[in-house]
Fold this protein.
Amino acid sequence: MEQRSSACPLDCPDLCGLTVSIDNGKVIEVTGDRRGPLTDGFICGKVRKITDHLYGDDRVLHPMIRTGAKGEGKWRQATWDEALDLVASRISEIRAKSGSSAILPYHYGGSNGWLTEGALATRFFRRLGSSNLDRTFCAAATTAATRGLYGVMPGVALEDYAHAKLIVLWGVNPSATSIHLVPVIERAREAGAKLVVFDPRRTPLARRADLHIPVRPGADLPVAMAIINALFERGHADRAFLAEHAAEVDELRKRAAAWSLEAAAREANVDVSLLDQFVELYAASSPAVIRPGWGLERNRNGGSAVAAALALPAVAGKFGVRGGGFTMSNGDVNWTVTPESAIAEPPTSQRTLNMSQLGKLLVETTDPRIECLFVYNCNPAATAPDQRRVIEQLRREDLFVVVHEQVWTDTAQLADVVLPCTAFLEHRELRRGYGTMRMFDSPAVATPPGEARSNNALFGALLERLGLVRPGDAMTDDELVAKTFAESEHGAALKAQLDKGTIAEPPHGSHPLAFVDTFPTTPDRKVHLVPESLDREASGLYVYKPDPRTDEFPLAMISPALSTQISSYFGQLRTAPAALEMSPADAAARKIVNGAPIRVWNAQGEVRCIAKINADLREGVVLMPKGLWRKHSRNGYTSNALIPPGLADLGGQAAYNDARVQVALD
């Protein structure tokens, strides 16, 4: 038995350092280490139980080739050479017949590391000339809004929430998605800080908050605009800060003036006194920090809502003090290294297709039609909207589907070729955080089971088979890491930190103060409160699109994250059946009791599951968590079968929370 150091690259802002107990190459136990102050020796239950994922019955151990109809579960084991030859030959045939853009790589956040999400996979598809993928499941609208207003200016470090006197959580539930922020918030509250939560349900932190504002899904935009309007009208706007550091101030005020607190409260179906209390509390508190979450963006007004929330600290002058401002993603800020240097192939001008519209793309895309879908780091049968059509299209015999995967996901079950993939403890990974501003270089600490290979091993072999390797290419993980740092101004210093087995911090530090140490990276270094590019993309930034509910489908369905999964990752371990959570009032109106079999439906589809009465959920809102697998419901569909086809106003973002449904006993 020995202990080795690693880090978790999974989709979470906390970036935990890990201590892994290994016995003869096998993981026995995973605990948190103290190299990063945020981890502080503890980790989430998801990763503590990772041995169930690594060594469970669902693990893909060998290359498999389909022998029966798609979805029948008929496979034969193949050698890696046989499987790679088949994949390479089919890709070559499709390129010759229909062109490279008939091939679509489909990937997302199975790992946020630079070696597994990028590197040779990205190089392969760029050199191949495949269609490009616009990755829009999450953070597309928030990224567009943040960059439009501030560029890539870092936000408040998560550890610095301890200094805040007011913490605002808007559309985010750290208890499920960023557990290491919770004790920081609690320390701040013990020191006298107030906590405000905007969320349609009473999350664990909302139950303990000083103010909980249960905004109806999609109505965050008028609420944020009304708060901005009130700050100006009541003399709480920091005019000196705005004059020096902001642009389009008058235009923002003009657009916000359309919303009074009373009008916003009616639209959000909340008590206007709650909004009034928030305005006065926010104006009077310093330091005050707003943490918008990704739940805020998942609707037709998502980009504008995020932009309005991010404008608040500029309007009220909350920057320039430790613990004051906002936090969104810190993944791209301050680092001078970039994964592009290791990819060593520029982006192509081939068409770009929106991953959130996969079902539509597989049906309607022509010239050429998509004939090969290459899936890695993703499980679209469980995570893509329009689930019914996605599954129907994956079953097409004329669509060649390759899946590189750790376990037998819903998507793998519908593939032509399934290739066994390593998990993050079984390959090297270079990863920088998007909450905490730190970087880990984690070696492989465990032996992969069966014949699992990393993404880089797979795509390196395909680069060679298709004649796409060039002299001087970095091909191994070690070479890719060296290349990443070699072309950075501060690469040598960062690499030196990592080589000591420690974490690396950005050149400008992991706790920068906005408008003191760092400024917006917009051309004039100012906050642009109504950026022209966003105004154009949204066809009117901050213009509210009304609630899509109808008499036929009156209930707003949200699909937040589970505390036991990262999207669909670890979903094979879940044994509980799919449940739709309902408020007691909504359940009683339909004569539904806890545990009753129900059907949930709208024009897009239907899910058959059970009811779960949840007194923490506001009336008019139902909840089915994201990441469920087909096995969890009675009819093989999940909440993604109910997502409407529309997108958010910015970034091509999927509008998951715009689903409006009806529920009845089944």
About this structure: The first strand starts at residue 2 and ends at 7. The mean pLDDT is 96. The CA atoms of residues 121 and 459 lie 5 Å apart.
